[in-house]
């Protein structure tokens, strides 16, 4: 995009491009704006990252190479890690985290009746209800008193489970249209 003088404008700060970074789509960004956009993605998790050119109508995905060329090694690793976790959270029918506290292991879903073993912590996992394995009792019967108490607490405190990833969500204010920050699932708070 260009201003009335024909100078390239950054799609973030809408000023003349300083230390330009040109993406594959042809749009140019200020180097600092591009770097800050990438770093902000760690928290806002808006993956895949898209160019904001053409008044944010450009649909070109930002390449890994473009990100690596601008970011420090630590920042690039943080963005890549956030993108990976965003990918996993956006696919709750395909991937799950080990249910053991503080275990970072991810596993793919498996057929019912199978018992998985976490390669990191060696916990046995039920792939149907995604909890620790519960031999000889069904997933429905496994609903413990603690689970019932937590569901009761959620009901009493206006907390709901995301329909996509089942993360607990609390609505403090605003409209009823919600987006899960974990898996990006859209939902209506009232429905």
UniProtKB/TrEMBL annotation:
PROSITE patterns named among the record's database cross-references: TRIAD, ZF_RING_2
One GO CC annotation: ubiquitin ligase complex
Pathway(s) served: Protein modification; protein ubiquitination
UniProt keyword list: Metal-binding, Repeat, Transferase, Ubl conjugation pathway, Zinc, Zinc-finger
Mitochondrion in keyword set: no
Listed Pfam families: IBR, IBR_1, zf-RING_UBOX
SUPFAM superfamilies: RING/U-box (SSF57850)
Domain RING-type: residue ranges: 6-191, 10-51
Protein name, entry field: RING-type domain-containing protein
């Amino acid at each position: 995009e260009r201003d009335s003088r024909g100078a390239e404008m950054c799609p973030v700060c809408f000023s003349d491009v300083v230390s330009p970074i040109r993406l594959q789509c042809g749009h140019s960004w200020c180097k600092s704006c591009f770097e800050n956009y990438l770093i902000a993605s760690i928290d806002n998790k808006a993956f895949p990252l898209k160019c904001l050119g053409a008044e944010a109508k450009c649909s070109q995905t930002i390449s890994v190479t473009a990100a690596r060329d601008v970011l420090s090694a630590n920042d690039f690793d943080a963005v890549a890690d956030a993108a990976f976790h965003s990918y996993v959270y956006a696919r709750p029918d395909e991937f799950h985290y080990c249910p053991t506290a503080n275990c970072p292991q991810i596993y793919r879903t498996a057929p019912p009746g199978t018992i998985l073993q976490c390669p990191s912590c060696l916990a046995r996992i039920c792939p149907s209800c995604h909890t620790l394995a519960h031999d000889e009792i069904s997933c429905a019967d496994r609903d413990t008193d603690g689970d019932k108490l937590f569901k009761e607490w959620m009901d009493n405190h206006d907390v709901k489970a995301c329909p996509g990833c089942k993360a607990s969500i609390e609505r403090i204010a605003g409209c009823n249209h919600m987006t899960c920050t974990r898996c990006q699932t859209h939902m209506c708070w009232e429905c």
